[in-house]
Design brief:
The complex is a heterodimer of chains A (about 800) and B (about 650). Chain A is an alpha+beta fold and about 800 residues long. Among the domains of chain A are: about 10-225, Rossmann fold, CATH 3.40.50.410; about 240-270 and about 370-460, Ku70, Chain: A, Domain 2 (Beta Barrel), CATH 2.40.290; about 690-815, Serine Threonine Protein Phosphatase 5, Tetratricopeptide repeat (Alpha Horseshoe). Chain A has a seven-stranded mixed β-barrel. Classes of the chains: A alpha+beta (about 800), B alpha/beta (about 650). Chains A and B meet through helix 1, helix 3, strand 9, strand 10 and strand 11 of A and helix 2, helix 5, helix 6, helix 9 and helix 11 of B.
């Protein structure tokens, strides 16, 4: 019997659709976000099908063409199977899905299953299943055969001759799994009350059947569903890559230089969660009203990625710079400045400062390197700085086919091990590839000697930041300070010492084979929650139709094993923790500014520049606020109270375009407004409480509209901002922009029934512009647009179901005067 | 050539996970070199590098500025640099609008994006100055007899920065001077210097002083600067705590460049999150990437517009291909790939011809997740923080427990007061008790939680220069999913004699008290790339011959020290009997003995009769030499020939 290989398997699912499978049951759902317990009703069939669907989903997930399955129903209305066709009999058994590699259709078909009115015989189905599988695998003898029966054990079975079936199954090396709805399981433990006699008998028979098989198993469905969520690792066997271990100059001094044929293979490699596919809800279009049934269906289409290239023609200084980095955030507004270009027109190149160095191949000539691992020298293991190791580890083995090479490597490994040294080694994975520096550690295992290689940093990779010393503090007068809130006292040190002692997890209470205590936490048992939870979620979404009503079950306990410190350690350290809390008196600083920064950090994933700045320079926002004050010279002593008050001050400072030099840093809006999570770039020119800032008003306006339900506020704020900008000195350079804003605002007002707001705004604007220190030039520009920008008149409003107090002629007149 | 296009198409989730490096790219940095031009700076001295050449401090300072620019042009092409000289009688001709550059300071390079022409100009000036040592003095004549008030210098810096620095960039002034007491006896000037400096720091500018000391003229910072540079030089986050700020570099002129290198990249925290020692016992920390792989810059796409090159920005959109409709990011939902589109005709899915896979569910139902739900799967709904799980012995952290670079953490007093003393006590006690910590870390909201070993590091107390800071290194531990089992379990072992023969040359090649020295290994591939990039930007010819790879083993040294011993070991290896055992090949059922020994193949090769060999023989030979065995017979023969020629 060959070892089981991945794929090359046909699994037959035999599913009971007898009437009894239609019985409903309550299934507990994970609690809602607010902690309420939820329960849903589903039929036993739906419930048990989850197991089948998860199994099939795994096949789809792994994507192996040789991982195939078929579905046979028993208890079905019709009879449709190969034995019946040939010999008759075998009633109510039908081949539902022929053997093939499953796809989403397979799952959709399973969803359509309903309990029938007839009961079917599982043994009939088993025989049909064996036969169908056998015929299909006629030419593929080596494939693994599996059969899964899903049943509630409530239907009568004809069990004569079952030994013959067992014989046949053992001969074909078929493994059988019986998934029983509410079967008893002493180990799980599960026990069903009031079990019918027939079920008791059937269960006993299934146990007899499976134990007679070489490979048989009965499981209760609830356990099977739980186990299927257990983290399951994809075993990957690393390939052995041939390379050479060298010492010395093999070209010039070959008689001295050493060369050993070795193989490298991965020892650790970062596994990542499966990626998600993106879907979009398809909007109904007229020509798509095809089949009648589909009318009340929502269709989700898988999206494909497409890259588009643009050149930015915007001439606005500074802003252009910002846009470079924010990229796609604000394409809407920028569309007019962007020109789409075809990828074929593009030339690759690099930036050297602001200079461009074209490089058509996308790559300069590479350094000429030779494949292999060159040893540069040895150093003592105790001097190895663990924190410098940069990544994944590789095994270095002597060529398994060459004893001499094995002996050669072994001698070096043993010698290194004995002396306690590591080697500095330069690795080139392929001819012409970039070299990497690393260290080799010798390993002497029970039957083999090998090396481990890990990458170490180049000079370029190490950042030498300076940090203030934690222990030595120096006062202003240059004296060393021994007592300071930053320095721990003796009491504090002692409390911390106790804490460390009691939180020691070297002894988890368990012992290994040699009686040595096993420490708590083992990398080999810590599963990456992101990977397994994502996989569970992927599977779940593939088998249920609605996430909201059937949410993802909680993670498997195995995933959460190490998430919290062990209970026994917490118990032991209870007093020490209490003491630490008492002596260290750590307090959260309730500063508002700090709060903002915290929020800012939480969203630091956004690559937005502003946010990052906010994040890294906590003091920046405060300083920015002070700036206004600092135009008057302040002495350092005076500055501090100003700092305090500024921090709590609600921000009223406005953007002053006329003084761009003075206000480089503007305060960030401290109030978390709801839309911030949507558009992470915080507009420095936006006053608190306003949802539109003066820096990019149109963009803000549009993004707010896109969110809906803040239209009134958006229109109102837009009006305020336009007026504000227009009435500032030197506003002329933004006239064009403001007119665009007005057009957008009018358009929205008209459509969203904010007609009165627009009319009021426009009259106010006209008045303000024409007033003493107003901006008559701007109003002239507005007038040029004529009627289309004027007050919204009654006829205009009526068309869209709105109202206006102005007649058409009043509107006409308003703009021309 | 690797398919570079694929690199751009990183899946989004991955991007968020991988952003370590990208983190630094987004932000721009501005450095203003502010160089003293006084007479003592102009004084000619023996050049530290070249004999018979006399250079001045100002020359070295400008040269350092040039080198920093060169480096920055590559690592931070969006960064800006400027150069201001003070204590010179030369005045800025180009009176910019409204700027108030004070008298006796001269803007040599206004703040602009780093560009090749600007660097070349500086290089030319330096080359000329090397020829004619008095050139710099005549170009930037020093102010004689008196000194410009330092306060005015700061004011000038402030104006220059306001003129040119982008709003959001981090701004720093590198102050280079050798005068430790510019205003003896003038209290007023000290106060004004302090006030103007405060203005500067308040507008977000940091001063990083580089004070030059010479044996004849040591630099005493307490004379003037320690009272001026208080309180927040270099450390914008610390409030005035009555404690002197950290390092002010006082350096010999030869170290100026290396000192500047430390400050080349502004110090930026990767994350700033709470550190939970126990329930209700929380401090705050910041994380820094002290070891991060520096990669070659990514290439950009350009459009040739005839007169100039313009960068083309790329934008990724997601489209429903059947309908050619772009889908907004906010409305996207996420789920499992649907597998291949169903082939069977009887399916109820979308009509034929459509290659987009769809999934239809009853109206109002949603079989997919939102972006928020996806994130909660990845983070297990944890908030960004570090949680202590317990303490272990250092030996528990094995060599192979490595998947990713480490992160350095340092306390942050701003969010939780008392963080520093607690952190300090924890560090001290852990070092004392020789323990390492085990923590669960979720450093960013979008990352995935990961277990880390927490290694304490004591400060290495070396005066001057750069100290290893005190703090913890977080070393991400592999998950079970990341660990690959050893594929081999058995091999021939060397006898003790052979081991001893190896031991002697290892002894010779072992550096006493040595360690892995990152500093002596600059990345050759990166340097090679950058050299070509620079040549291309300067429109110069690149000479690959002139390039030296510093990471190549020191062959001469190796052979000199251990050559003979290695030869001995090789001889011992050949005579070792275990080496001559014929390997028992497993799993070969039918193969007759096809192996041809090397000598035979070599002789065939010499007479050009390799074609006589069979493909399986060629393959066996290649396999035994760890060569690829793919390809047609002709290719195999060629490969065998190549190998034999090379060995």
């Amino acid at each position: 019997m060959p070892a089981e290989r991945a794929g090359y398997t046909v699994t037959m699912f035999l599913i009971d659709v007898s009437p009894s499978m239609g019985a409903t049951r309550s299934v507990e759902l994970p609690p809602t976000p607010n902690g309420e317990q939820r329960i849903t009703e589903m039929t036993n069939l739906e419930w048990a099908l989850q197991f089948v669907k998860l199994k099939i989903q795994e096949m789809i997930f792994n994507g192996r063409k040789t991982d195939q399955c078929g579905v046979i129903l028993f208890g079905s209305e019709e009879t449709d199977n190969i034995i019946h066709e040939k010999n008759g009999g075998y009633q109510h058994v039908s081949e539902y899905i022929p053997i093939t590699h499953p796809s989403s259709t397979t799952l959709a078909k399973l969803d359509a299953l309903q309990p029938s009115e007839h009961s079917g015989d599982p043994i009939d189905a088993l025989i049909v299943g064996i036969e169908t599988q056998d015929i299909y695998l006629n030419k593929r003898r080596t494939w693994t055969r599996k059969i899964v029966i899903v049943t509630d054990g409530q239907s009568p079975m004809e069990i004569e001759d079952w030994e013959a079936t067992v014989k046949k199954m053992n001969a074909n090396a078929i493994s059988l799994t019986v998934i029983g709805v509410d079967f008893d399981d002493d180990e799980f433990p599960f026990h069903e009350e009031d079990k019918s006699t027939i079920k008791v008998e059937n269960e006993a028979f299934y146990h007899k059947l499976t134990s007679a098989l070489d490979n048989g198993l009965v499981g209760t469905c609830v356990f099977a569903l739980q186990e299927i969520a257990r983290p399951d690792m994809k075993q990957t066997k690393s390939a052995l890559m041939g390379t050479v271990l060298r010492l010395g100059d093999v070209d010039v001094r070959p008689e001295e230089a050493i060369e050993i044929l070795v193989k490298a293979s991965k020892c650790t490699t970062l596994a990542r969660p499966k990626s998600w596919k993106k879907f979009g809800r398809r909007e109904k279009t007229d020509d798509q009203m095809q089949v009648d049934e589909e009318e009340d269906m929502t269709v989700f289409a898988q999206l494909k990625m497409r890259s588009e290239y643009y050149i930015d023609h915007s001439t606005k200084e500074g802003e252009e710079q910002d846009k470079m980095n924010t990229g796609s955030d604000d394409e809407e507004d920028n569309d007019k400045n962007l020109e789409m270009v075809q990828k074929e027109q593009l030339i690759r190149g690099f930036k050297y400062g602001s200079t461009y160095a074209p490089c058509p191949d996308g790559q300069f000539r590479r350094l000429n390197t030779r494949k292999g691992i060159d040893i540069c020298g040895f150093f003592h293991a105790k001097n190895f700085r663990r924190e410098l190791a940069m990544g994944e580890v590789q095994y270095i083995w002597a060529d398994p086919g060459a004893p001499q090479q094995q002996v050669a490597l072994s001698s070096i490994v043993q010698a290194m091990y004995e002396k306690g040294v590591l080697a500095i080694a330069r690795l080139v994975s392929k001819d012409g590839m970039d070299p990497k520096m690393g260290v080799l550690e010798p390993r002497v295992d029970t039957n083999i000697d090998f090396l481990l290689w890990v990458q170490m940093p180049f000079a370029d990779d190490v950042r030498k930041y300076t940090f203030a010393c934690l222990e030595k503090l120096v006062s202003k007068n240059g004296e060393s300070v021994t007592k300071h809130p930053y320095l721990p006292t003796e009491d504090q040190l002692e409390a911390m010492g106790k804490f460390i002692d009691t939180m020691d997890i070297m002894d988890s209470g368990e012992k290994d084979d040699e009686g040595e205590p096993i420490p708590w936490y083992d990398t080999r048992q810590s599963y990456n929650p992101a990977i397994h939870r994502t996989k569970q979620a992927l599977f779940h979404s593939a088998v249920v139709n609605d996430i909201t009503s059937n949410p993802l079950p909680p993670p498997h306990p195995e995933l959460l094993k190490y998430i919290n410190p062990p209970k026994w350690a917490l118990k032991a350290s209870k007093d020490a923790i209490a003491e630490c809390k008492a002596v260290f008196k750590v307090k959260e600083v309730p500063k508002k500014a700090a709060k903002v920064r915290k929020d800012g950090h939480v969203r630091a994933m956004d690559e937005d520049e502003d946010m990052l700045l906010l994040d890294k320079k906590p003091a920046a926002s405060r300083k920015g606020k002070e700036l206004a004050a600092s135009q008057v010279p302040v002495s350092p002593k005076l500055a501090r109270p100003a700092k305090e008050s500024a921090a709590s001050d609600s921000e009223t400072e406005e953007e002053s375009d006329q003084e761009p030099l003075l206000l480089e840093k503007r305060p960030f809006n401290a109030l978390p407004t709801p839309e911030r999570s949507m558009s992470p770039d915080v507009d420095p020119g936006r006053a608190p409480g306003r949802i539109i800032g003066s820096t990019y008003p149109l963009r803000d306006f549009k993004s707010n509209l896109a969110q809906g339900d803040v239209v009134t506020k958006a229109v109102e704020d837009m009006g305020v901002i336009i007026k504000e900008v227009v009435l500032r000195p030197f506003a002329s350079r933004r006239h064009k922009e403001m007119i665009e804003c007005m057009i957008a605002m009018r358009d929205t007002s008209l459509k969203e029934d904010e007609i009165d707001a627009w009319n009021a705004f426009l009259r106010d604007l006209k008045e303000s512009c024409l007033k003493g220190a107003g901006n008559p030039e701007f109003w002239q520009e507005v007038q040029k647009l004529g009627r289309s920008i004027s007050l919204i008149s009654e006829p205009e409003a009526k068309k869209l179901g709105g109202h206006s107090e102005f007649s058409e002629s009043a509107s006409e007149e308003f703009i021309t005067q | 050539m690797p398919p570079f296009d694929d690199w751009n198409i990183i899946d989004e989730e991955e991007e968020q996970e991988l952003q370590d490096a990208a983190f630094f790219d987004g932000k721009r940095d501005v450095i203003l070199f502010c160089i003293d031009c006084s007479e003592s700076m102009h004084e000619l001295r023996d050049d530290p590098n070249y004999e018979d050449v006399k250079t001045s401090h100002i020359f070295t300072a400008l040269e350092a500025a040039m080198n920093i620019q060169k480096k920055k042009a590559i690592v931070g092409p969006n960064d800006s640099v400027g150069i201001v000289l003070f204590n010179t009688t030369r005045s800025s001709e180009t009176k910019n609008h409204a700027t108030e550059i004070k008298k006796n300071s001269f803007v040599y390079q206004p703040i602009t994006l780093i560009s090749a022409p600007a660097i070349q100009e500086l290089i030319q000036l330096l080359d000329a100055a090397r020829e004619d040592p008095d050139l710099l003095k005549s170009t930037f004549p020093p102010l004689t007899g008196k000194k410009m008030p330092i306060g005015d210098v700061f004011t000038s810096c402030n104006w220059v920065l306001r003129d040119g620095a982008p709003k959001t960039a981090s701004k720093r002034v590198f102050l280079i001077t050798d005068d430790d007491n510019p205003h003896p006896g003038s209290k007023q000037l000290v106060t004004s210097a302090r006030t103007t400096l405060l203005d500067l720091t308040q507008s977000g500018v940091q001063i990083e002083p580089f004070f030059i000391a010479t044996p004849e003229k040591p630099f005493n910072s307490s004379k003037f600067y320690s009272s001026v540079l208080l309180p927040n030089v270099l450390n914008d986050e610390d409030e005035d705590t009555g404690v002197l700020p950290e390092s002010i570099s006082i350096t010999r002129i030869d170290d100026l460049l290396s000192q500047m290198r430390f400050h080349e990249v502004p110090k930026r925290a990767h994350f700033s999150i709470p550190f939970q020692l126990a329930d209700g016992f929380v401090i705050s920390i910041k994380g820094y990437g002290l070891v991060t792989e520096q990669k070659k810059g990514t290439y950009k796409y350009f459009v040739d517009l005839g007169d100039r090159m313009e960068v083309a920005n790329s934008r990724t959109v997601y489209v429903d291909e059947d309908q050619q409709a772009e889908v907004d990011k906010g409305e996207m939902v996420y789920g499992m790939a649907l597998g291949a589109a169903p082939v069977e005709g009887a399916s109820d899915d979308e009509g034929e011809g459509a290659d987009t896979v769809c999934r239809a569910v009853p109206l109002g139902k949603r079989p997919f997740y939102t972006a928020d739900e996806i994130r909660s799967f990845r983070t297990l709904d944890l908030e960004p923080s570090i949680k202590l799980l317990g303490f272990k012995d250092p030996a528990e952290l094995a060599f192979e427990d490595s998947v990713k670079h480490s992160v350095f953490i340092y306390p942050d007093e701003l969010k939780y007061s008392g963080s520093k003393r607690t952190f300090s006590a924890l560090l001290k006690k852990m070092i004392e008790k020789k323990k390492i910590g085990l923590v669960l870390a979720l450093t960013r909201r979008n990352a995935a939680p990961v277990f880390c070993a927490m290694l304490p590091q004591a400060e290495s107390g070396e005066e001057g220069g750069w100290n290893e800071p005190a703090g913890f290194h977080l070393i991400p531990l592999p998950f079970a999913d990341d660990i690959r089992a050893a594929p081999l379990e058995e091999a021939f072992r060397a006898p003790d004699e052979l081991k001893d023969a190896a031991r002697v040359w290892i002894d010779k090649l072992c550096v006493k008290d040595g360690a892995y020295p990152p500093d002596s290994h600059p990345n050759p591939a990166l340097a090679y790339h950058n050299a070509q990039l620079q040549a291309s930007a300067f429109r110069e010819e690149f000479d690959p011959e002139a390039f030296e790879d510093l990471t190549r083993p020191k062959y001469d040294m190796i052979h000199k020290r251990a050559g003979n011993l290695m030869k001995e070991w090789k001889r011992a290896l050949l005579t070792d009997e275990s080496a001559n055992v014929v390997p028992v090949t497993t799993g070969s059922k039918r193969k007759a003995d096809v192996s041809v020994d090397e000598a035979e193949i070599r002789s065939k090769h010499e007479v050009g009769a390799l074609t006589k060999l069979r493909v399986d023989q060629l393959k066996d030979f290649l396999k035994s030499k760890s060569q690829p065995v793919s390809g047609k017979k002709a290719e195999l023969i060629e490969r065998v020939g190549d190998w034999l020629d090379a060995h």
